């Protein structure tokens, strides 16, 4: 445990926990301190001025990160016939219809994202209790219920990130790896923040983006000046 404590205290060295950092400076500092034996994920968390218990204050959406996420995403597609073949050709990891529904009902969930053609939703709807809590339920609002399964598979594999505000009004996501270039990470973070901004619900009152923080998997968290996260004109 002493070794871990030493590494963390070294990572925190020279950081001001109360300062609001410029996004570019924060990314540079986190990259320098990401010294774990694996490629750490860089994560952004945004505190929003919403109460998601109210339907008109729910924030959710999807964003295609310009530089990808750096992680391998396993994609399952619920489809039949030609659409199933299209999904396989586009690189889907698992494709099926009733057989796949049965596997998922049995607890076999070996994927990170689920896509379905509209005609399959009668079947897939039965999986709400299994997939819903895991954030895996296909939804037309984020492009995972679609007749164009090939495009949806490619987007999922290429850096599409879904986001959904939690009860406490926080939305967060992994926006790349510590091995990414600093500019690529800043670009991804700004794309994510822009998508969250565009998803601002009609019921949001007062300041929408209240706080922004950035961290790496094993590193410290830094408070970010929200104005520096906005896309630069």
Number of helices, counting only DSSP H or I runs of 4 residues or more: 8
Low-confidence stretches: none
End-to-end C-alpha gap: 46 Å
Class of secondary structure makeup: alpha/beta
Major β-sheet, in short?
4 strands, antiparallel
Please tell me how large the radius of gyration is: 19 Å
Number of strands: 9
Task: Give the % helix.
Answer: 25-40%
Overall pLDDT score: 89
Molecular structure report:
This protein is globular. Helix content is 32%, strand content 21%. The longest helix is centred in the last third of the chain and has 17 residues, at 182-198. The strands form 3 sheets. The protein has a 4-stranded antiparallel β-sheet, with helices on one face. The chain has a 3-stranded parallel β-sheet with strand order 4-3-5, sandwiched between helices. The protein has 8 helices and 9 strands. It is α/β, with parallel strands linked by helices. Strand 3 (75-78), helix 3 and strand 4 (94-96) form a beta-alpha-beta unit. Helix 2 (23-33) packs across helix 8 (182-198). The protein has helices spanning 2-12, 23-33, 81-89, 98-105, 121-124, 128-131, 149-158, 182-198, and strands at 41-48, 60-64, 75-78, 94-96, 113-116, 160-164, 170-177, 209-216, 221-224.
